[in-house]
Recover the amino acids of this structure.
């Protein structure tokens, strides 16, 4: 087994900055992605996700900062660094007049080395072997996504960067893609997944970074981020939910309340103990509001993401 | 925003290399054979473009000779042999003209389609040097245009060699009968042998107030005009007989150079603009509008500027076998024995070579620079 060509991070950036005129698309990004992990990269539209990926891959030049892929500094050792990196950036597009196999031949020739021998296994792994000799013009969006993944596999990648890989896939295709990504991670490869499908990221990834206005605002393991930031959400089933919400807000004991119809959800502060749930129940009963039930629910990545981005929006 | 970041999971073991050896090319900017071959495949499989290029380069020659061979076979009394030196020259010039346009269109496609098809990004991500990606396009496309030009030109040569009337034994140079295949010294000796009689027929430039009363004066006038007389003799000789084998080789090489330049310029300009249609239209305009306009009119004080046009520099290199008769081109330049057919006074050989090399290297450098700096 060959030694890792550098430190323990698959991706490492310090102060990475990319400007387009006055607009700072990537603003001093500090990012460390552990090797062998599935890492989600999240952010609202225009947050700078794709620009960061493009900068990492050398598709556009950085204005400031340093970066390393697989422990190798980029752009100084770009070729060695990218030798085992596969990536899909934006939608995967190919020469439509060529077959899937010919497109892979073209990319294998550019990669050199053993890439040519990996064409057939890659096509088989993404389930395109039977359509490999059809022109890409006849491929569906989902098939192009799979061809994009096959193109990544030509590198025998240690690091895969997938930008919205679930786009255009039907539920079965998404399931296959999820399984494929899981399989790749199980083989010790690092997968960086940029996606708007937060549910998919939550199911697939170990850790995430959230980016907004070009800056990484939070990063870490999903479970810890959600627990550390938002804590539990308690669904309160009571007779007068509007009055109950006002009462809890006035008491200042919760991080927030939300009322949708008659459903009242109370978000507990980060690190709050379960005693607080009993306290809420006691206060409502003492105020003469009948309580029929209290149910703890875990905040989803989507809830957390929305709460983070809405907070950021309020501050900006 | 300041937030406490949870600890990231520690790094896991690196994925095994699975027998992979680091086989990175020693010279990273040189394209590999495999890269050239697959790029060639990519271009060849553009069916519409390939049909257009083949039609422009091969079809005129094939059509003209096909019809002439057919007519001659059906009715040999009314229709003469299919080939002939004039037709050879005309079709070769046609291959040069249409071939340049076809090659430029192919070059423009080769320089832009990776970008327009979204493949450029995939190629950059492979880590391959962008310069190598650019350089691979040059032989990949040249192999196609060179082959097509070779097919058309070989057809032209074969019909000319085997289906042409026999050449006359001599040239009628302004009424003076001169045998074929003389060099300038031999022509001079022949004309001086009967100088007084020849001087009455030849268009000698005598200078102001000059008269040719004596044989010595006639000899002197012939000596002074031998350069232009030899040029006229060559033109007559060329138009009257099939080019020799070595002359055909020169013409073939000149055609390949002309078409190769068209491809390289199209590739460079295409890479620069990223626009296939704009590039193609621009180069068609250069070939059929700008070059003829500048070549037919000598602009005072701008003659050296005119000579910077590739078509004019290449015209100076045009082999004698392709030069039209009785035009103002200079006689016998170096290399292909070229003589311009466009009427621009001859330029020094070094200048001609500099312009040609400048266009090839300059456009390649511009295209490569754009490819290396373009955001993918």
């Amino acid at each position: 087994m060959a030694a890792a060509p550098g430190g323990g991070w698959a991706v490492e950036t310090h102060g990475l900055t990319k400007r387009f005129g006055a607009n700072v698309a990537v603003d001093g990004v500090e990012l460390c992605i552990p090797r062998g992990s599935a890492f989600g990269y999240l952010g609202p539209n225009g947050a700078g996700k794709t620009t960061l990926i493009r900068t990492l891959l050398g598709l556009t030049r950085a204005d400031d900062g340093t970066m390393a892929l697989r422990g190798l500094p980029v752009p100084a050792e770009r070729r060695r660094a990218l030798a085992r990196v596969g990536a899909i950036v934006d939608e995967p597009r190919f020469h439509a007049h060529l077959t899937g196999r010919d497109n892979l031949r073209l990319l294998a020739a550019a990669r050199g080395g053993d890439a040519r021998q990996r064409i057939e296994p890659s096509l088989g792994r993404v389930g395109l072997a039977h359509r490999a000799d059809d022109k890409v013009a006849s491929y569906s969006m989902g098939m192009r996504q799979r061809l994009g993944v096959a193109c990544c596999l030509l590198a025998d990648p240690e690091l895969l960067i997938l930008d919205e890989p679930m786009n255009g896939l039907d539920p079965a295709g998404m399931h296959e893609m999820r399984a494929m990504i899981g399989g790749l991670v199980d083989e010790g490869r690092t997968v960086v997944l940029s996606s708007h499908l937060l549910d998919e990221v939550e199911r697939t990834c170990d850790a995430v970074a959230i980016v907004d206005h070009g800056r990484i605002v939070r990063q870490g393991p999903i479970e810890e981020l959600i627990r550390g930031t938002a804590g539990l959400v308690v669904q309160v089933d009571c007779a007068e939910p509007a009055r109950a919400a006002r009462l809890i807000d006035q008491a200042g004991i919760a991080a927030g309340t939300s009322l949708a119809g008659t459903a009242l959800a109370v978000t507990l502060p980060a690190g709050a103990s379960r005693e607080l749930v009993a306290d809420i129940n006691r206060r409502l009963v003492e105020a003469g509001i009948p309580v029929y039930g209290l149910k703890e629910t875990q905040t989803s990545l989507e809830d957390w993401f929305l709460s983070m981005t809405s907070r950021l929006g309020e501050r900006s | 925003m300041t937030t406490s970041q949870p600890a990231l999971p520690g790094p896991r073991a690196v994925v095994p290399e699975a027998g992979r050896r680091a086989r990175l090319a020693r010279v990273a900017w040189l394209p590999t054979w495999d890269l050239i071959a697959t790029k060639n495949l990519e271009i060849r499989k553009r069916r519409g473009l390939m049909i257009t290029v083949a039609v422009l380069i091969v079809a005129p020659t094939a059509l003209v000779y096909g019809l002439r061979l057919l007519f001659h076979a059906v009715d040999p009394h009314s229709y003469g042999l299919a080939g002939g030196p004039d037709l050879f020259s005309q079709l070769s010039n046609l291959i040069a003209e249409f071939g340049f346009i076809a090659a430029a269109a192919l070059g423009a496609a080769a320089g832009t389609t990776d970008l327009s098809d979204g493949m450029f990004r995939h190629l950059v991500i492979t880590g391959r040097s962008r310069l190598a990606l650019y350089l691979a396009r040059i032989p990949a496309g040249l192999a196609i245009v060179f082959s097509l030009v070779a097919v058309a030109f070989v057809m032209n040569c074969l019909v000319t060699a085997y289906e042409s009337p026999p050449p006359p034994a001599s040239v009628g140079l302004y009424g003076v009968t001169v045998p074929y295949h003389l060099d300038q010294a031999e022509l001079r000796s022949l004309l001086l042998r009967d100088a007084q009689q020849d001087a009455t027929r030849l268009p000698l430039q005598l200078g102001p107030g000059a008269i040719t009363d004596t044989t010595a004066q006639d000899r002197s006038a012939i000596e002074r005009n031998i350069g232009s007389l030899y040029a006229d003799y060559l033109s007559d000789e060329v138009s009257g007989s099939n080019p020799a084998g070595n002359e055909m080789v020169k013409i073939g090489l000149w055609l390949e150079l002309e078409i190769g330049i068209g491809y390289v310029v199209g590739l460079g300009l295409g890479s620069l603009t990223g626009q296939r249609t704009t590039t193609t239209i621009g180069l068609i305009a250069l070939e059929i509008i700008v070059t003829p306009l500048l070549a037919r009119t000598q602009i005072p004080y701008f003659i050296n500027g005119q000579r910077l046009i590739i078509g004019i520099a290449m015209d100076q290199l045009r082999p004698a076998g392709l030069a039209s008769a009785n035009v103002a081109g200079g006689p016998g330049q170096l290399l292909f024995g070229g003589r311009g057919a466009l009427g621009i006074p001859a330029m020094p050989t070094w200048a001609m070579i500099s312009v040609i090399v400048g266009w090839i290297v300059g456009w390649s450098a511009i295209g490569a620079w754009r490819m290396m700096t373009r955001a993918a």
About this structure: The longest strand of chain B covers residues 170-173. Residues 90 and 125 of chain B are 49 Å apart (CA to CA). DSSP finds 14 helices and two strands in chain B.
